[in-house]
Input
Amino acid sequence: MNGAGNEFVIVDNSRNEYLITKSLIEKMSNKTTGPGCDQFISIEKINNNNVDVKIWNKDGSTAEACGNASRCVAKIMFEKKHVNEINLNMHSLRHICNLTEHGDIRVNMGKAQTQWKKIPTTFKTDNTLHFNYDFQITPLKNIQDVCVVNIGNPHIIFFCKNLSNLNVNEIGPKIENHEIFPERINVSFAHIIDRHNIDLIVWERGAGITKACGTAAAAVAFAANKLDLSETNVYINLPGGKLQIDIDIKDNIFKSGPAELEYIDEFVYEESNG
Output
């Protein structure tokens, strides 16, 4: 499946048939040895409208949350169980997914965390929405603001004057693996078009450049609003498509966007020796 171009392999493992290993994830995520994807998703347990899922990046590392994957799993559950609300439990957070009257999938992403310990980062600061750390990386130019937030997983956002001539392949991994981020970090480059539209390019932790990232879109919309760069309802334009983000008066973040089935296939499990 894909959500705005963000590609997933989703396996129903609710009967615990498969031992998910790093080797298996790497094979499935590679377009040469498998279907290829940005993240590998396992549906671990289904209990009425509550669904437990686990998420891995293509390098085999675990991910705490994935907003685009939530819409895709919700789409499966809506069609399977004929309901219009599903609770997705991932790591230590929950995404509440609703099927709207227009057929869209809307996800309550919860609230963003802005304390430096919650990101987490070792750079102690009282204001993560103005993250004044000098990364000493030459290609980082045209930067207006830098923010770090956690929305189930950690994000750093560089608000840029423009996104042209930006070497994301060079900058992304340097920031992702920087020593001040002990759990690594997702890296976003955002450009404010107007108060309702933002362009976004994402270097995703453990996956690299992706066509879309739902948690990054939510993090960017939240940070932009708190910096008074945008309204509480905004469209995030990514290479793979457009996501709509809305923030309510209690700072709950809601995300809407497409979820598409590419194909269904039988999962042939051939892992041996664990």
